[in-house]
Amino acid sequence: MEMIIDFPGGARVDAHFGPYTVMTDQPPMGGGAASAPTPFALFLASLGTCAGIYVLGFCNQRGLPTEGIRIIQRVQTDRSTGKTENIELEIQVPPTFPDKYYSALIRSAEQCKVKQLIENPPTFNVFTNVVA
Length: 132
Known about the structure:
There is one protein chain. By secondary structure, the protein is α+β, with helices and mostly antiparallel strands. Helices cover 30% and strands 26% of the residues. Strands 1-2-3 form a 3-stranded antiparallel sheet, with no helix packed on it. It has a two-stranded antiparallel ribbon with strand order 4-5.
């Protein structure tokens, strides 16, 4: 997949791929207008929503209702370094959800490709190229 990243003004940085545009911005204290999530917030949202796709698929395959299910994502950051130290995904289910599926629901969320990428990071190659 190829994405085109451009700079439409201010502190905005947008990604274009297929028919989609994903916009990002910075908060005012970072020189932006807070018109869109920051790239890091978008990255974190991709983790929670990716886990959600797997939870949704698990439930759909078994004919389990998804009403009342939600994922609460908590990010703990070291205040002195700003480094993300822990990411917690809490899958909340309604009282009627069969408890025999709890561990399988966790296993399905753990199949998230974003999570797997973080756990086994790819090699990055960053370079410049002059275009006419």
